[in-house]
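Training component of the fellowship. As part of building independent skills, the fellow (R.M.) carried out the full modelling exercise for a liganded target. The chosen ligand was PBG. The inputs are recorded below so that the supervisory panel can assess the work.
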Amino acid sequence: MERMRRLRQNEALRSLVRETEISTTDLIYPMFVIEGENIKEPVESMPGIYQWSIDRIDEELDRVVNAGILGILLFGIPAHKDECGSEAYDDNGVTQRCIRHIKEKYPELLVISDICLCEYTSHGHCGLIKDGVILNDETLPLLAEASLSVVKAGADMVAPSDMMDGRIGYIRNYLDENGYKNTPIMAYSAKIASAFYGPFRDAAHSAPQFGDRKSYQMDPANGREAVRECLADIDEGADIIMVKPALAYLDILKEVREITDMPLCTYNVSGEYAMVKAAAQNGWIDEKRIVMEEMTAMKRAGAKIIITYHAIDVANWIS
Ligand code: PBG
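Fellow's submitted model of the complex:
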């Protein structure tokens, strides 16, 4: 008989043969910066998560740094939105000013800037619109301009989340031409049109004002197409590949892990966080064990990097 239980007898033995471990260095913490002063506005559907104004964001950044987390993913929420998302590529936009502030105060902290238009456009879509159609090629220069603008402000990495075709190559060229050959791109490569983003759209004020994102984000049903998306982004010059959301798409993560040696990231999104928090607040689940089990699942499936709203908690639990 194979006695599997021999190595399960005590924690020392279990630790010795444990195949997957979570490290603080795996974690990226998403943060929301909003225009205004003295703001720490709770996101109702995401307990523990806030929109911060620049003058108060250090309260949260101190928690990040003290927990030993290496990087944040920054989302900006401007006061003024327009048809073409001008503030996304305004050198004095809220995101750019926040990045300058962070790099001055916390020079070691990795600042990854999300690149998209949806938080900045009045219609809430991730690209320019003409006659109700989300334009692809016309949107690329704006995404490139937004990327250059945040990189000039000091961002260490850009993470395009818009899902326009060809944007990774376009942004790569533009950064290269402007002297930023060494700035890495983390591509939201396989990004699904998912209901799991619901709470984020409250947090970032980015819900589309008409229609949905199905003409640019992926169909949840398509695992093989998700692999093609990843291969396309690798081909265009991405440095890190992302699958998003995480938990309902671990099969895709695993498949991508098998076909490439690129660093892999997954985004444990707002809806996944909200569900855990809601159940935990009701006393229905053990939050810490559930979260650690989820983290382990994401790593076991192949992610090295995990973007998660639980990052500070996880870092504190494992330290
Ligand atoms: C912007 C963007 C979204 C998320 C990250 N970048 C929302 C969307 O595509 O609608 C979702 C993150 C989350 O749900 O936590 N395009």
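The panel noted the following from the submitted structure. The chain has a mean pLDDT of 97. The pocket of PBG is lined by residues 114, 116, 118, 126, 161, 197, 200-201, 206, 213, 269-270 (CB under 6 Å).
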